[in-house]
Structure to design on (254 residues):
């Protein structure tokens, strides 16, 4: 009979994906969730292999002179948080604006500056309402601090909504590139190893890091990625897996 977890907490969705992956890779080994509550590791495989888990998303590290508060100055900030914020505000506008003369638009969100976005919901709503009222049925854009909205006419059909949310676009000031992926990998590796060091990395013989990917546009992207510049610190293995648990890539120390 295997060891039991000492934690009262249940694994979150990211940890559940990692747990299923580990069980499939090591079906005959004991796997314990949070053997030491509030301390690393997230999982212990057998007696000596400690495993940390993290969601891999695109992060922003604010400049120290930006007035973002101590928490943001010390913690990476996810671009997905900004996308959800803007998308949620657009969702509220969808219900308020009535369609006029059949004019209907997709509104795409384009991130233009990699810094945490502040959004005044009322001012945002007024800008969207004014943008639609002044629209002519042609494409146009609305600029904000850190992002822009691209208004694309919806052609054909009888549309019941004046506006509808479209795509998220993030060119990272010149294209979605391997450098962006490397930057985000290094941010989460540094962050996790720093946490381990605070509690003592010498408690276990080996440490792995499992990252559940929410960044890469598709897994074949990583076939073109050179991981030679990554600093793994004390991790003996860093595994990136898809949200369905499939392995995308496996990084080992050079």
């Amino acid at each position: 009979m295997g060891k039991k977890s000492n934690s009262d907490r249940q694994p979150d969705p990211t940890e559940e994906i990692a747990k299923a992956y580990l069980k499939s890779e090591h079906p005959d080994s004991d796997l314990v969730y949070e053997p030491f509550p509030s301390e690393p590791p997230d999982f212990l495989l057998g007696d000596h292999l400690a495993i940390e888990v993290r969601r891999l998303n695109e992060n922003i590290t604010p400049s120290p002179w930006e007035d973002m508060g101590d928490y943001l100055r010390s913690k990476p900030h996810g671009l997905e948080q900004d996308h959800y914020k803007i998308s949620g505000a657009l969702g509220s506008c969808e219900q308020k604006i009535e369609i006029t003369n059949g004019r209907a638009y997709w509104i795409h969100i384009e991130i233009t500056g990699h810094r945490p976005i502040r959004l005044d919901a009322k001012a945002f709503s007024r800008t969207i309402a004014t943008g639609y009222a002044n629209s002519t049925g042609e494409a146009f854009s609305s600029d904000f601090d850190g992002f822009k909205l691209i208004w694309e006419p919806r052609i054909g059909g009888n549309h019941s909504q004046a506006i509808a949310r479209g795509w998220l676009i993030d060119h990272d000031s010149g294209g979605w590139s391997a450098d962006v992926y490397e930057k985000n990998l290094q941010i989460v590796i540094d962050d996790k190893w720093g946490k381990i060091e605070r509690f003592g990395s010498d408690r276990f013989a080996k440490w792995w890091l499992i990252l559940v990917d929410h960044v890469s546009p598709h897994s074949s992207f990583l076939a073109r990625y050179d991981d030679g510049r990554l600093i793994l610190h004390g991790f003996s293995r860093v595994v990136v897996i898809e949200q369905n648990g499939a392995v995308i890539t496996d990084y080992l120390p050079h």
